[in-house]
Amino acid sequence: MEVSNKKENILISSEEIAKKVAELGKKISEDYKDKKLYVLSLLRGSFIFTADLVRHIDVPVKIGFMATSSYGHGEVSSGQVKIVQDITDNIEGYDVLIVDDIIDTGITMKFVMEYIKSKNPASVKSCVLLDKPERRKVEITPDYCCFTIPDVFVVGYGLNYGDYYRNKPYIFNWE
Ligand SMILES: O=P(O)(O)OC[C@H]1O[C@H](OP(=O)(O)OP(=O)(O)O)[C@H](O)[C@@H]1O
Ligand SMILES: Nc1nc2[nH]cnc2c(=O)[nH]1
């Protein structure tokens, strides 16, 4: 589960990612011009996407983190979302944008959206790099998304295999 010697199949290059992330940052800047934007980054998977995205946001923004886990080391969701590290800011009255790397079954994003709504924000929306709609188990559509992908387990740009590969600058799977 640590490293694989199979050939990498690049599905989305770092250049394609950079272009889409920049466009998305611009759109979010327009949409949140007169709002109180709070970006909530879900660790660990979204750390790279968040870091790149917020550098394309040119309106005032607070940035915070929450760590959730539901996959462990496997490729299948346990169906249970664990809050590994809770949000530490008071987000009451803020327009919270929850940023994650992927919506797959949708269980994580749905759970976190409900949890954040209970803290009385002005609004809550979701923003992901990847959407994998074929695997959905709960009803959810991302408010902002860079790429829709088919039902393949993908790795890189924050997404892990075991504890590894989050540092790869592109999205790939193995052939
Ligand atoms: O839509 P879902 O099926 O719930 O899957 C999406 C979630 O799965 C991954 O998190 P994981 O639990 O692997 O933790 P990680 O962020 O530390 O990788 C990913 O980062 C998302 O948060
Ligand atoms: N690495 C990885 N984590 C996930 N969590 C939910 N879907 C995926 C996926 O396709 N890849």
TrEMBL record:
GO cellular component: cytosol
Alphabetical list of Gene3D superfamilies matching this protein: 3.40.50.2020
Swiss-Prot/TrEMBL GO biological process terms: GMP salvage; guanine salvage; hypoxanthine metabolic process; IMP salvage; purine ribonucleoside salvage
UniProt KW keywords: Cytoplasm, Glycosyltransferase, Magnesium, Metal-binding, Nucleotide-binding, Purine salvage, Transferase
Function summary: Purine salvage pathway enzyme that catalyzes the transfer of the ribosyl-5-phosphate group from 5-phospho-alpha-D-ribose 1-diphosphate (PRPP) to the N9 position of the 6-oxopurines hypoxanthine and guanine to form the corresponding ribonucleotides IMP (inosine 5'-monophosphate) and GMP (guanosine 5'-monophosphate), with the release of PPi.
Entry's Gene Ontology molecular function annotations: guanine phosphoribosyltransferase activity; hypoxanthine phosphoribosyltransferase activity; magnesium ion binding; nucleotide binding
Chief location bin: cytoplasm
Substrates-to-products reaction catalysed: IMP + diphosphate = hypoxanthine + 5-phospho-alpha-D-ribose 1-diphosphate; GMP + diphosphate = guanine + 5-phospho-alpha-D-ribose 1-diphosphate
Pfam families tied to this protein: Pribosyltran
Pathway annotation: Purine metabolism; GMP biosynthesis via salvage pathway; GMP from guanine: step 1/1; Purine metabolism; IMP biosynthesis via salvage pathway; IMP from hypoxanthine: step 1/1
Domain Phosphoribosyltransferase: 15-161
Localization (cell): Cytoplasm
Family: Belongs to the purine/pyrimidine phosphoribosyltransferase family.
Required co-factors: Mg(2+)
Protein name in the entry: Hypoxanthine phosphoribosyltransferase
EC identifiers of the protein: 2.4.2.8
